[in-house]
Amino acid sequence: MRNRLQKKVPLVASLVMPIRLKVTLTSVLIATVVAVVASITFFYAIKNITQKTFTTNLEALQTEIEQILVSDMVSIDNTARHIIQSASVFNYLSNGSLPSEYDEYELFSLKSAMGKDISRQLFFNPAFESGLIQIVRLFLEKDIIITQTKKATEQNLNVSSDISTYQYLQESGNTGRQVFVNEGRLSFAYPISSLSGVRKPTALIIGCNVDQFKHRYDALVESFSSAVYAVYDQNGLMLFSYGDLGSISQNYKVKTNKLSNGFISTIAVSNKELTGKVSDITFKYLLFFLALMPIPLLAAFFMTRRMRFFAENFIKHIKRVGEGDFAVTLPVYGDDELDEIGKAFNTMTGKINSLVEEVYKKQFLIQQMKIQLLQNQMNPHFLFNVLFSMSTRAKMNRDETLYQMTVLLSKFLRTNIASNDSMMVPIKSEMDYVDTYLNIQAMRFGDRLAYEWQIPRELMDCYCPRLSIQPLVENSVMHGIEPLTRTGHIVISVSDEKDFIIVTVEDDGVGFDMSLSEDRKDGRGNHIALDNLRQRLRLLYGDECTLRMESAVGMGCTASFRIPKQREEQKDVIPNIIG
Which chain regions cross the lipid bilayer (predicted)? Predict the structure, then answer.
């Protein structure tokens, strides 16, 4: 028995490890466990943060695509609206004659006028110039078509499909814009209602190249290598797409939104794109750490303290990353192995920081815009506060003239600065603004300025362009009445002429020579305001409703413009012709 025990002692003794080896192995084991736990924590922390960043970028991408799509649709709808509102088309819709009732010359003249109006509307049209709008066809009847394209060789492009679309519109009786996909082209069809009560089979078809549509969005989607997107109309008809729709599975993150114009936008991105890079970097990190394990245990023993410091520092940095501090980096330790780990860690945090910074920059730019808007509002508020203080001081000093002038000036500026959703205002509102201006000038000129209105009460609720009468009155005051040494008179009148009203501003001031060059026909140097009014009248009503000036030296000046009569319930009739 004793011999057996003696034989076993050396075996047991051989299994007893030195304390240094135990410490070394324990340190290595602890370091291994800490590194693995830290890596797992790091992986899930980065995954969660990247998930949020990924979702934010995906939503931002979809929002940007939708904004461009809505903008394109608005541009196409506006093009259709402007064409239908053009003079020749509007006149055709307003009369009661059908195309079959026109003789050959009248029909030729009608088509020529419409062709010129369509060309005018497409001139400098961004959608047409960019190639988004490829062809425009106005159907008066099946065989009476006015076509406009950028290239003459495209005049007969897709004629048969457009005729089929036109026939479908007439047979279905549907109203409002409708979208068709024919032969690689998007067709936006607009049934047009007659204004005369006589049913006219009129329709406008705007053809757009599908590839041109897609090209505007492909560059955005390419930021996601696995992205797939598609756009559908209200009825579920797919208009165009990017990528392989059949590849979408449960491993895809899908976002679907309904746009303000009724279209539906869908975008899908593979989840592998989210987790792939994080998993790959983390896996490489683990492999690299395991490669360090064969290092001699003796070296591990001497590096115990250093490894402990590294582990603690590494965990601290990972926690900071988990708290959202992506700018954190590991220092240089002076050892190749530890520095490689630090480099891999710094590379990962740097890439994540770049992704997060993109979102932050966008939010910062939005915040800057909001701050700029608030700053832009400070100056008017400051000006009104100063005027209020001046009026209060004048009232306290019993200076009634100064008090009235500051009150009127404040009212005048407030009306001029205040935003207005509509370009049109009632004549009564415009005359309130003019009256405030004339009251201010009357306090300045005294008896040298006299003025009166001649406006029938029933015309006061008619609409006119905002700030259209005041520039004419200002022109008379500053350049007609001011040079006089006697009393000058200004007469503002509005007269009724069937479906039109005529606004006239007449003065008996110094007048001017009508033989002056065209660029000085306002005669007084008030170019900016009057040129602005001319352009607005021309854009709103066409060349027939432009500003007219009549004057002679010493005989005063008469300025007038003629516009359609529009009351509150009629002011939107023209924009609503479509459908």
Answer: 21-46, 285-303
pTM of the prediction?
Answer: 0.41
Interatomic CA distance for residues 178 and 165, integer angstroms: 10
| Identity of residue 53 | T
What is the dihedral sign for C-alpha 103, 107, 113, 116? Answer: negative
Q: Which two tokens stand for residue 431?
A: 């005359």
Secondary structure in 3-state letters for 442-501:
HHHHHHHEEEEEECCHHHCCCEEECCCCHHHHHHHHHHHHCCCCCCEEEEEEEEEECCEE
Asked if 328 and 320 touch (Cβ cutoff 8 Å), the reply is yes
Neighbouring CB atoms inside 10 A of 18's CB total 8
Q: Strand pairing partners for 208? A: 133, 186
CA gap 523, 374 in Å, rounded: 40
The pLDDT tens digits along the chain (579 residues) read 445 444 444 444 444 554 445 555 676 677 677 667 766 776 777 667 776 776 777 777 777 777 877 888 888 889 988 888 888 888 888 887 888 888 888 888 888 988 888 888 888 888 888 778 888 988 988 888 888 888 877 777 788 888 888 888 888 877 888 888 876 678 888 888 877 777 888 889 898 877 777 776 776 666 666 677 778 876 777 777 766 666 666 677 777 877 776 778 787 777 766 666 666 666 766 677 667 666 655 565 565 666 666 677 778 778 877 777 767 787 776 777 777 887 887 888 877 877 777 666 545 544 554 444 444 444 555 555 556 556 666 566 666 666 666 766 666 666 665 544 567 889 998 998 898 888 888 888 888 999 998 999 999 999 998 888 989 999 999 889 889 889 999 999 999 998 899 999 999 999 888 777 455 544 444 567 788 788 878 877 877 788 999 988 888 999 999 999 988 755 544 433 333
Tokens (6 digits) for 255 = 């976002």
Q: Buried (b) or exposed (e) across 72-103, using 16+ Cβ within 10 A?
A: bbebbbebbbbbbbbbbbeebbeeeeebeebe
Domains of the chain: 18-52+275-366 (no CATH), 86-212 (3.30.450), 420-564 (3.30.565.10)
